[in-house]
TrEMBL record:
InterPro entries: CHK_kinase-like, Dhs-27, Kinase-like_dom_sf, Oxido-Kinase-like_Enzymes. It holds the Pfam family DUF1679. This is CHK domain-containing protein. It comes from Heterorhabditis bacteriophora (Entomopathogenic nematode worm). Coiled coil: none annotated. It comes from the Eukaryota. The lineage of its organism: Eukaryota, Metazoa, Ecdysozoa, Nematoda, Chromadorea. PANTHER family: CHK KINASE-LIKE DOMAIN-CONTAINING PROTEIN, UNCHARACTERIZED NUCLEAR HORMONE RECEPTOR-RELATED. Residues 1-98 form the CHK kinase-like domain.
Amino acid sequence: MENTFTKEPTWLTDFMGQYENGERLGVLCHGDLWAPQILWRNDVNIGGIIDWQTVHCGSPVEDILHILSTCTSVKNRRELLGPLLDYYHTKMTETLEAKGHKMPFTREYLNVNESEMYHL
């Protein structure tokens, strides 16, 4: 990471700007999603998500990677990432299609974004 920022000091702002200006397909990101930001209704259902000060347009995998990196072990992150991205893509596709819209990105696009986000 240090090498990236030493060689290209504006890399991060340029990368994130690509979501803001539409060069990359982005979604609404919480920006600081981790366990204390999630309010639970019961053991299974989320009641709400709080602390939206860092909301922005960003990578579709950003919040998933953040919560897995801050709230689980490396072993769990490796085991859960693929199934979570599958679930995310399936649910997003179903929701958009139910509202008459086409899913704008493929499951492979999530893999590419995940690889690029881990570059950070």
